[in-house]
């Protein structure tokens, strides 16, 4: 694979030039951008694969939902529908709005969760159909420059430093590292223990300007709960003790979750599928067959996969549990204060 990527290096150079010219055209106003009279916060990345956009989006919803009327907007990746769709429709499934948007809808049923390929059209539709909304969070919109968010948050993966990477297809970057300059704040995700020296190193390597904020977050796992009854379990170690564990994931990067489960049991089988995978009846049969002739087993999966497994026909008789994935900030109060300041300043402007 590495050899193939090196062979494709000339195409990466062409891709870099195309994305750079496109960005210059937006920066110079040759291609227009749309701004809106409402606070819009965008989460995005420049790295292909999971950096934690949706968990961070859901984290911010959880913090704002009691003080703001929040809506979220994403593309609705791999959904079977086209155009604008939101969760006020009578029937909502992962196939209609996408697996991540569906998960957000289930976790925050009072939040308007919308999907639309064109973010400008999506925001316009939200404001028309739901005029009470006073804050919109964009999930994965850093490259969607036709819309101009009021506050742009860039997520970068601690385990995959962007200064050691290159643009696709040789590397994993969607655009050059110069794009960091567009962000109001950068969150370094999936961090281990962070020291002040490491923080200084990241700020220097990312070439952040004085006005750009830098935050650090790590992956946390919430209390497991039963897949069908939703009953929470206080101790994961007791749940998995002396059990054969079947882990089912359809994530961009499942290594962290696998290692986390591995600390509790050695009897672990991993059914690993691609990100945004749509489970089939054959997959369900394989999973169910893996539980046969095992007296003590536990199926463990993610919230995103749980819903798709249910719609694919996973029997409610299986002993299945879900582990929520949540971000934990190194300095949560500073991050929330930054968001509060932005929302407050925007509210004043819009009055």
Short description:
This protein has 12 helices and 14 strands. The model has no long low-confidence stretch (mean pLDDT 94). The chain has helices at 2-7, 9-27, 53-64, 94-97, 99-107, 119-129, 196-206, 236-240, 255-262, 281-291, 303-312, 332-350, and strands at 40-45, 70-74, 85-86, 112-115, 135-139, 151-157, 185-189, 213-221, 225-226, 244-250, 268-273, 297-301, 320-322, 325-329.
Descriptive report:
With 351 residues, the chain is of the alpha/beta class. The chain has 2 domains: 2-68 and 134-220 and 328-350, 3-Layer(aba) Sandwich (Rossmann fold); 223-323, Rossmann fold (3-Layer(aba) Sandwich), CATH 3.40.50. Helices cover 36% and strands 20% of the residues. It has helices at residues 2-7, 9-27, 53-64, 94-97, 99-107, 119-129, 196-206, 236-240, 255-262, 281-291, 303-312, 332-350; strands spanning 40-45, 70-74, 85-86, 112-115, 135-139, 151-157, 185-189, 213-221, 225-226, 244-250, 268-273, 297-301, 320-322, 325-329. The strands form 2 sheets. The chain has a 9-stranded mixed β-sheet, sandwiched between helices. Strand 12, helix 11 and strand 13 form a beta-alpha-beta unit. Helix 5 packs across helix 11 (303-312). The longest helix has 19 residues, at 9-27. The radius of gyration is 21 Å and the shape is globular. The mean pLDDT is 94.
